[in-house]
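Subject: Interface between my chains keeps coming out wrong

I've been trying for a while to get a sensible model of this assembly. When I model each chain on its own everything looks fine, but I need the whole thing in one frame so I can look at the contacts. Pasting all components below, labels as-is. Any help appreciated, I'm running out of ideas.
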Amino acid sequence: MKREVLKELPLSAAALTGGMLQEYQQLLVEEMLPYQIEILEQGGALDMIRRAAGYRVPERTEPGRPTDVGKLLEATAYALLLREDPALKRKLEELIGLLEQAQYADGYLHPIMQASRPSDRFLSLLMSHEMYTLGHYMEGLLACYEALGNEQALRCARGIGDCLCQWFGTEPGKIRGYDGHPEVELALYRLYGCTGEKKYLECLRFFVEERGRSGPEHPHYFDWEQQRNREKFGKPVLGELSRWADRHRPYWGNYEYFQAHLPARQLREPTGHAVRATYFYCGMADLAMETGDEELMEACRSLWQGFEQGNVALNGSIGQDGFWEGIGRAYDLPPDYSYNETCAAIGLFLFGHRMMRLEPDGAYGDQMELSLYNTVLAGTSLDGRHYFYCNPLEVWPHSLYRYDKIHIQARRYEWDDCPCCPPNEARLLGELGRFAVLSGRQEAWVNLYTGLRCTLPLDSGPVRMEMVTEYPREGRIRITVLDSARFTLRLRIPAWCREWRLLLNGERTPAAAEKGFAALERSWQPGDCAVLELEMPCRRVYADPRAYHLAHQTAVMRGPLLYCAEQADNGELLSRILLPDSSVLEEHWEEDLLGGVYTVTAEARRAMLQEGPLYRAGPPAWEKMQLKLVPYYTWANREEGEMRVFFPEIRTGL
Amino acid sequence: MKREVLKELPLSAAALTGGMLQEYQQLLVEEMLPYQIEILEQGGALDMIRRAAGYRVPERTEPGRPTDVGKLLEATAYALLLREDPALKRKLEELIGLLEQAQYADGYLHPIMQASRPSDRFLSLLMSHEMYTLGHYMEGLLACYEALGNEQALRCARGIGDCLCQWFGTEPGKIRGYDGHPEVELALYRLYGCTGEKKYLECLRFFVEERGRSGPEHPHYFDWEQQRNREKFGKPVLGELSRWADRHRPYWGNYEYFQAHLPARQLREPTGHAVRATYFYCGMADLAMETGDEELMEACRSLWQGFEQGNVALNGSIGQDGFWEGIGRAYDLPPDYSYNETCAAIGLFLFGHRMMRLEPDGAYGDQMELSLYNTVLAGTSLDGRHYFYCNPLEVWPHSLYRYDKIHIQARRYEWDDCPCCPPNEARLLGELGRFAVLSGRQEAWVNLYTGLRCTLPLDSGPVRMEMVTEYPREGRIRITVLDSARFTLRLRIPAWCREWRLLLNGERTPAAAEKGFAALERSWQPGDCAVLELEMPCRRVYADPRAYHLAHQTAVMRGPLLYCAEQADNGELLSRILLPDSSVLEEHWEEDLLGGVYTVTAEARRAMLQEGPLYRAGPPAWEKMQLKLVPYYTWANREEGEMRVFFPEIRTGL
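Reply #2:
Try treating it as a single job with all components included. I did that and got this:
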């Protein structure tokens, strides 16, 4: 039975119109997308599609990675909604044409496999990312259909879906397997949403339910696959391609890395590779949304709480283990080692969005905005052309020679061997409108605050609404309803906000927050205006004392924005700095700094450098200093140097 | 020209008679040595020697590692000086006989190579540890000669030396190479010392001078070797055996890992694999000792200062990088990650001993005793049958699932795949007498304080001396001269000691410390007694603020002993504990704890655990607690748990 859930607004019905997120959408259109398309073209990823479509293109020694074409297809579709660009649209349509030309008759479409191993199919689900790639192609094509109405793209996506339905399932002759990297689950649900065809939902159900199952007469698929490949080929197929294999191995034993150690509905604690995990949990949530399955829902809830209670870094990302990009043990949150991959934060954001739709609660939105502002945005430089894969909370460049720091960087890269994050950010930025406001039967749930114009598909009929705000720079949000209708406007009150007020047509309206949302139920008239004022003084944040590495330390936030100190403002050896608990945090608008930011200053103490032996009889002298913090999302946009989020706090007046 | 240096006392002329170090010698004789010999026997290491000697022994699938037989040979020889044991002596003589039987006519003796690759020799110096093994066999055999007068052992060691002289050198037809793991340098110098034969010294000179050299017509040996092996065998030889290869590779580029990136006399900063480094620097110091070469001496001095100024952990060990067991960058001293291998501390101790002989200075002795008491002893459990390879300053077992913690253990192992440390500790403990007192022409330099009876080979003739002390448990050292002679008694005044006094035959004698030694020059009469009283209240120690990870923290020491907190005494989550600067450190003798130790207590504060979200608006409440510290060398002898050396210090009265 389908569960009653909040509806997403169609992309065409929710357009960002101002504020910081829209600035990033502009950056997407103007910088990120052209740059990334150019990289894919130069790298040969598009040539590989041309070759798969039958065209003769020059051979390259390094064929490029077409894996991320799917994500860029998606981002391009969204970008064309944001700004008309006939040349880009032609290029996109040409690409869709090439993909349809390349697609096999049964729907299979994976240019790199078609070019390099045309006769192999689904031989190494454990490591090949084969369906992960198919999933991203599907999502990209479906975005072209959703955003631009491109029927050819829909046909092409359907073909892939049909191919999967034909190859996978419990019926005799089908493969009872699933991909080592979940993603196709999200694509199948999206295809079901676009077509209404049950078979795609059933295919999703199969992938969710089959994962991690085994029994006496039904070996674990990954065991079976590896055994089959050893017998058939004398070695693992494709598995040996992974340069990470040695590092991952310790975690492979029971396939926890792949979320395949238990059947989905038995999962309770988030574990394994962080991106794989969040994507699979999204698939579980999608299925729960469609089926109303309470057991699956309970698993999703428990997994979410696991993240929230012990595994999310303060910048809203996850994956404490730097070597296997994996979710660590609860409360093990080393600020200088955690992986905090940009894609993992995107995965958490997408999972939170689904949980929000399933059972609206401000806690989901709170976490989503932390991930969005403090990791997704931090993943891109202010020029849109440099990217972070990992987003640690502390970087001491002097130590980066160490092998345990191999994933940590003090400078964003221009591109990477594994360029999964940049196009993932691009597509997420492109579709932000989808996440801002959700619709109940007769309710509008405002989850993310941004300049926005949208149309709510209420039961009583469409209602247009406008939101104007400079959030998260300022805490004032003005919402104007443009049509008459009786409905409840629900506004998320972030848990970090201690004081807020709601005004209706200029008059203060009493309202209490319930499950993180304040509600205004009334018959709205065109022009009615609600204003939410969230107080957002900069504040100190502390971790649960079980978080070993963060004990006795404090970080600074302002609204949803996390702050950090950079060497550029504070000199070297940031670990020398202490923050007295009595120091006042002061904010300053700096128009010309880092694209315009509020900086925060506080009087701090710093251990002075004094010549002497390595170990000494007395503590160093302290000097007063002005600590200056900038929003974390803007770090590493100046000269390379140290960065630090948490500072030891001195308690005065003991 | 031979440099005038302090003389070592022959082993037979310096016997430990009491105190803590002698307790460890008893542990060596009673527990460590029988246990380790049994392990080598069980593991098949001795069988491999029997097989090499021509005996038929059962084949084993896992042939054991005979590499460490050399070290145990050495330890056994010393043990037989400490306590007569006819059965053990027979066993040792039998082993020496087997080795001589196994030795090839040209002197080559390496049972594992002889058994597994009889026709290969010196093919992969980069990775094979082949000469490292030969070196340890030589040292073991020479110890049997030095301690027991076994001429067969000397013959056998000479044979190995002759083999090396024949194979290596700059002459045409000889190999211009050197081992990837230095050690043979020390053995050659020892062989030179036992025989007086110049050719062994020349061979040492070759190995020291040739290392790291390259030029247009003289490629770097390791480059040449790898190229030759690829051409000859199509792959690296033996190199692929290293399970660490992948981790090391980043540091191999210029052979810095192997101290072969520069010629020895150009070395200034200690770098590379910590054990390899210290062993090679020992070889350099040995050569400098013999040749009076000032340039080489300057290099040694600079390398030592490099360690002392930025790379030694507070427990006297080195090697900050956990993955390649390597020396890190200065001031990068992560307490929870540093490798601090037991063998590396031994290497540093041996290097310090040579520097002390070359240019006597208390700083060398200070560092030697830190390494000895806080790493070498910590490397062994109180039962003598469990060992640490790594000696970090902080262990949080909850985090040990992480791959970057793969080398960190919270419990000593019974044995290990790479059992280099236990027999290395065994041999060092066995020869401690060698390091306590050094002899000048007419001077006695007391460098380590321990119960001791020794005979000084002064120019004027032998002088017997007795030392009685419970150091480092107590700071009182009584030295009695038993023969008449005019000479200067020099006593090391540790830099940590703020107050000390010297008494001669019961009367206070004014004396100043110069270069870390107080001097008493007089005509000594039999029975004359000097007493040194070192005040050793427990004290706080602080690191240079450039040591990023140790900022704002303090550790506790008492005399040369480092202290730590264990979970057994202080509960879990030691990172929650703060130490106010005003807290008094109190010491308590606990006879029944950990073999009898002074414990230290102090009133501390601890963040209380309170339910709540992972990140919070306010800091945790603090509770008072009694922090209890035990000597670091005794940690991990009770139930497994956390351990921590450094604690954040709160400054009160700001």
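Reply #3:
Confirming on my end. The two ends of chain A are 59 Å apart (CA to CA).
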